[in-house]
Structures are given as structure tokens and as C-alpha cells.
DNA sequence: ATAGGGTTAG
């Protein structure tokens, strides 16, 4: 055999195509060199590099004696392919065969555990590494930093980091990114500054962590200065960095800027598109998000799950059930439904009024995680099905899923809206004592709401006064006031009303609550003052609109929307309904009009609120008996709430109105959610 | 010589 060992080595490092590799492989076998450590190891890495991991494994398995080099070649091969399970598998085999891992085996194995989020295993390997004298190894240490930061354990990570003798750029980057990822942007910036003070020069990757930190901090000045820094340092070349910038500006609501950067990017990837789609969706610009999803497909990008999930979010925002369904079906066809997209689809179904579809999907998901459970509980909650929410919660406990703060926020809110007071109080206490979760302001607001609805306003006030770590905010006082209003508890109510006014509401619904309270308490002077204050505050400028999906298309209506092609027909329907309603005993609640105009005009304004236009349009264009689902961007008006009860009876239809807070199911003259508030 | 830090989504 004229091929020397040396020549084989050279060949293996310079030729990366499969036919050549196979030829060399054959030569190694015929020459017997295959059984020597060095060429075999080389062969394994070469096969791994061209992505032929199976052959690499075969070579590895056939080796008569395997040294640490061969093991590492194999473990690194799996790591490069992203096969973390196999990495851990090979590591375990090594241990079983009595091979002593070295620095690189530990490093790669711990990295694999981090990407699998298998923190137990990761820590076990870490301890083994320490036991074998790799305590001060930089690579192992850095892998550990990554493991801890992936688990959000930045306090421990910081301790390890501080103990490291030589901190290189990779370690610093891990710390910066770690803090940024868990929402501690300021800490991340602090670490970056420290790094600069140590004279370390950053690269694009550490800047990526810094961009994420800025995204989290949300201060435009910081964002712009980091952007400037990138330009000055000439680091603005990588697609990934551009994409991150798009995300940063989009998440902070600067969509024009995000879009401009997106358009001017030298190249784009699917991720760049996804980042923009998600930016639009998260900022409530559902139409733009969906258009962008279509546009990206048109120019040849196959949407990834992130963009599809964002599109589902957009659908749930505007109640676009038909589009939501087809996106869900598309994900199913691609066989890519997993937890995140399933959760998004469940949320979409429930927010579009298709609660049973949400449940059906939920039941099909095996091995549910916390967010999935929480989403189902919240779904029942917004529809006013407290018992169902509680039963899902019980299932959750039975399967040993551990509830978190969000679980209880959804559960307590669901119980409150269904008047399950004892259950609410019980689980609030269990949350604190058994699950050791500290109540947040949100939890307090739920329980205050729960108690106040039941008329236990003194108890609610005691709870508010017992709050130590939080200051009671608008939601808490408004909930209390509403209970006082409904149960004619005037003295606590007066206190709550004052607190609400002190906090300067920017929502006309809250002003009307205060005014109504003063009216029922016969405190006329205060009532007049509230009306005056309201005029002075000049209420939110957000125009109210309602949407209805008819035959798979979304139709939006603004108040008194005369431009609509069916306006005359809609007016006729509204007027006809109006006279029938009055005959049944309905009187318009003009306190819900906040303009200084004549009463007759006020009444007219009420009956042309956007929700009623949407209902009229729905009635006109659907078969009798069809359920109508209306979506409103603000809170449904109190008068309309009353009127829709009558309408549901007159036309004998189920009418579902979703407003910012929850769902109102109107059927046979009643609303499932009881009181308006 | 090898290995450790990177973008979007519930």
C-alpha cells in the first residue's frame, strides 16, 4: 500500500465531499489503518462535517479500541448536528465503559444539557467535572455559565463567573445574554460596561446580547445609542444583528423604524420576516401582521412557527376565526404542532369565541406544560365559566404540573367572574401557604373583585389595607367601587371613589362608574364634579370600533359609520329593534353618553354605537339563528350591554360580545356574565 | 487541535 498514514491525514483534512471520503475510507480499511486511533478519529470528524453522522457512528462502533480522542470526535460530531440527546447518550456510554472524560467532553456534554434544559443532568456532569479536577477549567466553566443562565439562575451564574480566573469574551457574552434573557436588561448593560472597563473588546455576538437588553429596557435613548455603537464599530453586517435590531424597535412600538431597517437589510432570512410579523402582531396591528405573512410567502419564504404563532396572535386580537382556523390547519398539515403553537391556537379559538374548539385541541395535547394549562384556565375565565376553569386547575394538580403565579391570576379571575367566592378565597390562601407563591397586585385585584362582587366590601377593604409590598392601583379600587355600587355600600364606596379619582382614570367607563355611584348615593355635588373632571380630562382619544366576522370576512364599524354601503338597512333594523325593546321595558341609559348635548340626541348616539352597527350588519347578512360574535376594542358600553340582552331575545340568537376584558354571552335576554362590571 | 457565547413565537 503506497498511501502513507501521513497522506491519509492530509486527505482527510482537505477533502470534504462524500465520494472522496468514501474512497479514503475504503483505503483505510484495506490498509488496516482504520484500526489506528488517529486516522479513525479524523475519519469520524470528517463524516460528521459533511453531515453523515450515521457513517461516523459506524466507524466509531467498529473501532477495536477507542481512546478519548475518538470519543470526543463522536460527541462533538453529535453536538455539531444539534443532537443533544445523543451527546448525553455518548457521554453516559463513556462513563459506563470507564473512559475518563476530559475538558472538551465535559464542555460539550454540559452544553447539550443546557440546550435540552435538563438541568439535573447538567449539574451532575458539572459535579463530575469538578470531582476530576476541572473546577478551574475555562471551557467547562463557561458551559456551566450557559447552563445556569438558561435556567434563569443568574445569581448562581454570577457567583461562578466571579470565581473564574481568566474571563474571556465568551464568558462575558454568556453573562450579558443571560441577564438580558431573563428580563434584567439593566444588569446586562452593567456587565457589558464592566467588560469594557476591563479592556475587553466586544464582537457582534456580545452586541446581540446588548441589543436584547435594550429591547427589554425599552428606553429609546439606550436603543439608539446601541444602534449607533454598532455603526461606529462597523458591526452592522450580520443578518442576525439586523434582525435583532428589527425586533428591538418593533417590540418597543417603533414599527416605522423597524420596517425601515428591515427594508434596508443587505439580506433577509425567515427570522427577519418573523421578527417583523411578531412586532406588528404584538402591537395590535393585526391586519399588517397578516399581510406581511402573506407577503413573505409571495416572495418565497416559508413561514416558520414563530411567524405562524404571531399570525395566530393577530387573529385572536381581532377575532378573525376563519383565518385562525386555516393557520392552525396549515400548522397541522406541516405536522409541526407543538406546545407553543398549540397554546397560541387555543388562545386564538377561545378569543374568537370558539371555546369548544379550544378545549378539543387542549385535550389532544399530551404532556401539557404550565403555560398550556394556564391558557386553558384563562380561556374558561374570560368566558365566565368558573367551574370549568377550576376543574381544569384540578386536573393540572393531578398531573403533577406545578402551578405558577399566572395560573392563580387566571384561576382567581375566573372564579371571581362566576361568583365562586369561597373557592376563590380558599385558593388564594392555598396559593400563599401551600404553593408558596407571593401574591402580586394582580392577585389582590382578583380577590378584591371577588369579594366586592359578593358584597363583602369591608373584607375587601381589609385585604387592601393588609397589602404590604404593593400599593393598591386603579384596578383594585375600581373593583371595590363597583362592588360598593352594586351592593349600595356607600361609606366604603365613597372612600373607593375618592381613591379612583385620585389616580386619575383615563377610561370613560371608570368615570361613569364613579358618577353612577355618586348618583345612587345621592351625592349630587360630587357627581357634578366628576362630570366636570371628566370633561377636563378629555377622555381617551381611542375611537371605539366593533368587528364582526361574516362569511369568513371581517367587517369593522366605527360609531355612526355612515360611510358603510348598507348603512340605511342597518339604521332600519336598529330602529325597528329599538321600538320593540322599548315596548318590552328597555330605557336607554343616557349616563353612558359623555357629551353635553340634548337628551334626544344622546339616545340617538347610543343606538348607533359601533357594537349595535356590527350586530345589525350581522343580522342582515347571516341566516336566522346564526350565532354572532362581535369584537370590541374598548369595553362594551353599559347601555349596549342592556340593549343586547333585549336584542338576543327579540331576534332569538346567541350574541357573543368580546370586549377588552372578557366575553359577554347573550342568550334569551340574559347575559352570562351577570352584572355589567 | 478540539470544545464554550447568537436572531423570531405561547
Layout: helices, strands, pairs:
Elements lengths: L4 H10 L3 H14 L5 H13 L3 H10 L5 H14 L2 H13 L6 H14 L2 H13 L6 H13 L3 H10 L5 H13 L3 H13 L6 H14 L2 H13 L6 H13 L3 H10 L5 H13 L3 H13 L6 H14 L2 H13 L5 H13 L3 H10 L5 H13 L3 H13 L6 H13 L3 H13 L7 H13 L3 H10 L7 H13 L3 H13 L5 H13 L3 H14 L7 E6 L2 E6 L8 H17 L15 H9 L2 H12 L6 E5 L5 H13 L4 E4 L4 E5 L2 E2 L6
Parallel strand pairs: 3-4
Antiparallel strand pairs: 1-2, 1-3, 4-5, 5-6
Helix pairs in contact: 1-3, 2-3, 3-4, 3-5, 4-5, 5-6, 5-7, 6-7, 7-8, 7-9, 8-9, 9-10, 9-11, 10-11, 11-12, 11-13, 12-13, 13-14, 13-15, 15-16, 15-17, 16-17, 17-18, 17-19, 18-19, 19-20, 19-21, 20-21, 21-22, 21-23, 22-23, 23-24, 23-25, 24-25, 25-26, 25-27, 26-27, 27-28, 27-29, 28-29, ...
The structure holds one DNA strand of 10 nucleotides.
Keywords: Repeat
GO molecular function, one term: zinc ion binding
Organism: Chenopodium quinoa
What do these coordinates show?
- This protein is mainly α and 677 residues long.
- The protein is built from 36 helices and six strands.
- Helix 1 (5-14) packs parallel to helix 3.
- The protein starts with a helix and ends in a 6-residue tail after the last strand.
- The model has no long low-confidence stretch (mean pLDDT 90).
- The structure holds one DNA strand of 10 nucleotides.
Amino acid at each position: 500500500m503506497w498511501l502513507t498514514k501521513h497522506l491519509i491525514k492530509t486527505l482527510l483534512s482537505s477533502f470534504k465531499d462524500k465520494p472522496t471520503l468514501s474512497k479514503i475510507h475504503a483505503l483505510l480499511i484495506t490498509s488496516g489503518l482504520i484500526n489506528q486511533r488517529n486516522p479513525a478519529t479524523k475519519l469520524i470528524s470528517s463524516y460528521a462535517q459533511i453531515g453523515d453522522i450515521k457513517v461516523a457512528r459506524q466507524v466509531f462502533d467498529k473501532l477495536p479500541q477507542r481512546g478519548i480522542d475518538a470519543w470526543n470526535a463522536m460527541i462533538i460530531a453529535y453536538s455539531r448536528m444539534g443532537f443533544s440527546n445523543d451527546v448525553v447518550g455518548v457521554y453516559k456510554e463513556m462513563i459506563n465503559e470507564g473512559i475518563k472524560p476530559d475538558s472538551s467532553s465535559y464542555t460539550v456534554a454540559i452544553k447539550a444539557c443546557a440546550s435540552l434544559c435538563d438541568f439535573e443532568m447538567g449539574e451532575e456532569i458539572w459535579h463530575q467535572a469538578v470531582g476530576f479536577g476541572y473546577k478551574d477549567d475555562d471551557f467547562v466553566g463557561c458551559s456551566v455559565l450557559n447552563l445556569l443562565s438558561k435556567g434563569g439562575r443568574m445569581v448562581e451564574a454570577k457567583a461562578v463567573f466571579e470565581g473564574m480566573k481568566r474571563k474571556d469574551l465568551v464568558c462575558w457574552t454568556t453573562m450579558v445574554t443571560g441577564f438580558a434573557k431573563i428580563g434584567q436588561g439593566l444588569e446586562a448593560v452593567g456587565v457589558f460596561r464592566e467588560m469594557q472597563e476591563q479592556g475587553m473588546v466586544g464582537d457582534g455576538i456580545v452586541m446581540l446580547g446588548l441589543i436584547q437588553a435594550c429591547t427589554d429596557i425599552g428606553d429609546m435613548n439606550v436603543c439608539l445609542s446601541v444602534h449607533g455603537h454598532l455603526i461606529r464599530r462597523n458591526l452592522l453586517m450580520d443578518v442576525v444583528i439586523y434582525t435583532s435590531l428589527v425586533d428591538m424597535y418593533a417590540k418597543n412600538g417603533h414599527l416605522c423604524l423597524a420596517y425601515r431597517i428591515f427594508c434596508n437589510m443587505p439580506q433577509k432570512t425567515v427570522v427577519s420576516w418573523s421578527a417583523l410579523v411578531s412586532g406588528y402582531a404584538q402591537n395590535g396591528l393585526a391586519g399588517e401582521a397578516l399581510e406581511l405573512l402573506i407577503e413573505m410567502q409571495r416572495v418565497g419564504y416559508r413561514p416558520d412557527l414563530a411567524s405562524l404563532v404571531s399570525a395566530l396572535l393577530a387573529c385572536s386580537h381581532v377575532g378573525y376565526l376563519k383565518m385562525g382556523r386555516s393557520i392552525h390547519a396549515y400548522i397541522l398539515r406541516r405536522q409541526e404542532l407543538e406546545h407553543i403553537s398549540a397554546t397560541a391556537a387555543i388562545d386564538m379559538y377561545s378569543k374568537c369565541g370558539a371555546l369548544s374548539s379550544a378545549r378539543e385541541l387542549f385535550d389532544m395535547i399530551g404532556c401539557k406544560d404550565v403555560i398550556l394549562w394556564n391558557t386553558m384556565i384563562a380561556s374558561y375565565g374570560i368566558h365566565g365559566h368558573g367551574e370549568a376553569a377550576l376543574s381544569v386547575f384540578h386536573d393540572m394538580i393531578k398531573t403533577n404540573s406545578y402551578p405558577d403565579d399566572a395560573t392563580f391570576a387566571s384561576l382567581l379571575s375566573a372564579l371571581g367572574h362566576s361568583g365562586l367566592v369561597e373557592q376563590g378565597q380558599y385558593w388564594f390562601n392555598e396559593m400563599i401557604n401551600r404553593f408558596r407563591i407571593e401574591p402580586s397586585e394582580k392577585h389582590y385585584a382578583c380577590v378584591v373583585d371577588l369579594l366586592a362582587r359578593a358584597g363583602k366590601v369591608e373584607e375587601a377593604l381589609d385585604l387592601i389595607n393588609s397589602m404590604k409590598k404593593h400599593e393598591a392601583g386603579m384596578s383594585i379600587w375600581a373593583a371595590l367601587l363597583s362592588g360598593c355600587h352594586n351592593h349600595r355600600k356607600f361609606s366604603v364606596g365613597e372612600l373607593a371613589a375618592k381613591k379612583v379619582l385620585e389616580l386619575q382614570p383615563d377610561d370613560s367607563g371608570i368615570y361613569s362608574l364613579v358618577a353612577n355611584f355618586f348618583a345612587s348615593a345621592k351625592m349630587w355635588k360630587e357627581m357634578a364634579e366628576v362630570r366636570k373632571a371628566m370633561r377636563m380630562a378629555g377622555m381617551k382619544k381611542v375611537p371605539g370600533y366593533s368587528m364582526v366576522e361574516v362569511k369568513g370576512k371581517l367587517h369593522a364599524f366605527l360609531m355612526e359609520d355612515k360611510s358603510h354601503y348598507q348603512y340605511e338597512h342597518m339604521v332600519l333594523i336598529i330602529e325597528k329593534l329599538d321600538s320593540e325593546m322599548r315596548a318590552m321595558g328597555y330605557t336607554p341609559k343616557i349616563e353612558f353618553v359623555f357629551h353635553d348635548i340634548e337628551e334626544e340626541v344622546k339616545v340617538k348616539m347610543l343606538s348607533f354605537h359601533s357594537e349595535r352597527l356590527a350586530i345589525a350588519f350581522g343580522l342582515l347578512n347571516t341566516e336566522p339563528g346564526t350565532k354572532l360574535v362581535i369584537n370590541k376594542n374598548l369595553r362594551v358600553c353599559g347601555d349596549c350591554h342592556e340593549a343586547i340582552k333585549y336584542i338576543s331575545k327579540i331576534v332569538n340568537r346567541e350574541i357573543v360580545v368580546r370586549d377588552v376584558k372578557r366575553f359577554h354571552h347573550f342568550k334569551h335576554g340574559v347575559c352570562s356574565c351577570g352584572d355589567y362590571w
